[in-house]
């Protein structure tokens, strides 16, 4: 459930995806989250870091 993604996990998803270059699908498998959840929080963190 996307509502249960902690801030720490959101940052971890962003950093892991940024550093490894893996696809959202691969990162989703790693974190046991859906592609939609990975995409949502990756883009949320990207917006925050670019602000």
Automatic annotation (TrEMBL):
Its transmembrane ranges are none
Where's the DUF8040 domain? 2-49
What are this entry's molecular-function GO terms? sequence-specific DNA binding
Q: Which domain of life is it from?
A: Eukaryota
Protein's name according to its UniProt entry:
DUF8040 domain-containing protein
Q: Which source organism?
A: Paxillus rubicundulus Ve08.2h10
Lineage of producing organism? Eukaryota, Fungi, Dikarya, Basidiomycota, Agaricomycotina
């Amino acid at each position: 459930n996307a509502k249960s993604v902690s801030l720490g996990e959101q940052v971890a998803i962003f950093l892991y995806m940024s550093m490894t270059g893996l696809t959202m699908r691969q990162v989703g498998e790693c974190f046991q989250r859906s592609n939609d959840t990975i995409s949502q929080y990756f883009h949320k963190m990207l917006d925050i870091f670019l602000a």
